[in-house]
Amino acid sequence: MKVKSILVSQPQPANDSSPYHELSKRNKIKIDFRSFIQVEGVDAKDVRQQKIDFSNYTAVIFTSRNVIDHYFRLADEMRFQVPDDMKYFCQSEAIANYLHKYIVYRKRKTYVGEKGLSDLTPYFKKHKDEKFLLPSSDVLNPAVPEFLDELGIKWERGILCRTVSSDLSDLEDVKYDILVFFTPSGIKSLFENFPKFKQDQTRIAVFGKTTVKAAEEMGLRIDIEAPTPDTPSMTMALEKYLKEANKN
After folding, report:
1. Which domains does the chain carry?
2. pLDDT tens figures, 158-202
């Protein structure tokens, strides 16, 4: 069956340089965006119930920009003055750049990975005596704690925000040829909003092994999967599928 419309379960890209814009233009199809999940911050009481005291830590590990906002928000709520000599370990350059919204950049206390946390291994080992806080949402890639445990450093996780399903009730009577998912939380949101969802002719595209597993557990038929050796990105996987589905 030909594809005329795609719904991507992510926020609308900030500008027209998105590869989805080019995909839509090249294939003359409609691509809409809608975040199936949203992140809500916890309050200071929730943090205290986790027995997390920001003053106990000398270093912070940031794996997302969202968590940076909630860390500094809660620091204000809890009247914790983040010390100038706090060390920050950032998973990527984008996260480190976002951190500058809250701190004056000093190379001596900010350590940045190129692609992931594993790039920071030498810095973690050099600062193994620090007490690390890993602020996160309630949804965390299990590879992160596994990696930190393997390093043998002293670290604790603090859940500073929670991932909840968005209200998608306005989409109840709207049909798309392809639904695109990037997280298990997105799959969960689909069924929380539409418990009687039947896939029928709707194609499902998923990114990542954990999302594949979540989709399969809910009985969905996966038609498009990424990353693969041939299609490392979702847009490439969609392009490949569209060439076949819309060739006539």
Report:
1. 40-163 (3.40.50.10090), 168-178+192-248 (no CATH)
2. 999 999 999 999 998 889 999 999 999 999 999 999 999 999 999
